[in-house]
Description:
By secondary structure, this protein is α/β, with parallel strands linked by helices.
Amino acid sequence: MRILFVGNSFTSRNNLPGLLKGLAGARGIDIEHKLISAGGASLRQHLNAGKALEAIAGGSFDTVVLQEQSTLPVKSPARMQDSVRDFDKAIKDAGARTALYLTWARRNAPEAQEALTSAYAGSAAELGATLVPVGMVWERFLSTHDEPALHDADNSHPALAGSYLAACVFLIALLNEDPVGIDVPVKGLDADTAALLRHSAWDICQSLAG
Length: 210
C-alpha cells in the first residue's frame, strides 16, 4: 500500500509512518509512505502551498491521510471541513481514498476531545472517508491507565508510546489488521509496554466499532 501523509508534527514526531510500516510488515503488508509536513501547519496552508496537491495528482498513492492542525477543529470546525472537502476532491480525482487522522486533546484540556471527534467524524461521514480514531482511543486509554504517558512533556505532542498507540490504530482502521501478537521491537519502548498498547488499541477499536 502506498500512503501519503499530510500534516504536521503530530504525524512526523516519532516517525508515525515508519511505526505503521513496521507493524504492517509483520502482517506481510508492504507500505511505501511519503510525508508532507510543516510545523504547526493547517490543511489550508498545505492546500495553498501546493506541494501536497502536486503529490496527490501524481496518482501514485492508494490512500492519503489528512491531519489538521491540532486545535483548529475545536476553534473552527467549518474551516477544517472546507479544507478536507477540497483535499478529498483532489484525492478522489487521483483515484485514491481519503483517511482522516483524528487527533487527541491536549493533556490539560481533555474536554476538547468531543469537538475534535465531532469535526473529524462529521467530515468522514459526509465524504465517505476512512476515520482513523486515534484521539478516541487515546481518550479511552487515558481513562484507565496512568502509564505509559501518551503525551510528551509539552502536554500536546505525542510521546513515543502515544505515537505507537496511534500506529496500532492506523493498522486496524486502514489495513483491517490486528496488532495483537506483533513483536517487532521498537527502540525506546519496552516489550511489555508495547504489548499493552497493541492490546489496548485492538480492544478499544473493537468497542468503538460495536
